Amino acid sequence: MTSQTLPTKTLLAGVALACTTIALPTLPRQSPIWQPPQGLTWDYHLLNPASATTPTARVMAIDLFDNTPSTITALHSANTKVICYFSAGSYENWRPDWTDPIPSDVGNDLDGWEGEKWAGIRSQTVRAVMAARIALAQEKGCDAVDPDNIDGYNNENGLGLTSGDSEDFMRFLATEAHGRGLAIGLKNSLEIVDSLTGDVDFAVNEQCHEFSECDVYGDFVETGKAVFHVEYPKGEDVDDEMPTDPDVKGDICGDAASRTFSTIMKNMDLDQWIEFCDA
């Protein structure tokens, strides 16, 4: 982790002690805020730090904490936009910036994700943590942010979270991101796509083809906004270099409901392996 994270760590230490919202300084905006067009090639690479662009991908979604500003600068030099991923709706016990949460700010474990719990997204302390992460994304040079786990309302979260809470939280995050010149995407959370279309700049979707849900984005894409779409055709237990079965790939890429999406196929662990529909 570079020294750029130190102001964020200092801020969050104060948040943990005071349990109050601390205003982050407003930095000069990047103008204009990136509005990704439909049809851009992209890659979703979260397992390890990114070392280079995928040659045909014009957008890279990478982990906010695991990548350095120099990596992001190199991606920009390759004419690649950078979306920085972080979990906004959960507490992850391995992250360096939120190490000792207030018990009331965390709920149940996320099913299948060791060390991760649902976050109390109504809490001002949690919101300060996430605002600091957006500030870090700006410091590192990201073009956009991909806040994950917004859909606590759709899970046994242990905090009584509702879809209305998620809508309010996303609007808070969007205000923070836009105030720092960053675009922001809505991750999954299909039940609130329509209500947030005017607040976000793009969407990120996992497995809408697998679950026959891609048509939910009908009104969203009519506005011209991009949907960065990933399917995991090998399932949860296989992460290898083997190509997707041609029939499965044909079904994914031929889905009429996702014809305007930027669709890729990945291993579930989001390593370097990738397939595009046109290759």
From TrEMBL:
Superkingdom assignment: Eukaryota
Gene3D superfamilies given in the database record: Aldolase class I
TM segment ranges: none
E.C. number: 3.2.1.22
Glycoside-hydrolase family GH114 TIM-barrel domain boundaries: 41-273
InterPro entries with a match to the protein in the record: Aldolase_TIM, GH, GH114_TIM-barrel
Single GO MF annotation: alpha-galactosidase activity
Enzyme class: hydrolase
Record's catalysed reaction(s): Hydrolysis of terminal, non-reducing alpha-D-galactose residues in alpha-D-galactosides, including galactose oligosaccharides, galactomannans and galactolipids
Protein name: alpha-galactosidase
Species the sequence originates in: Knufia fluminis
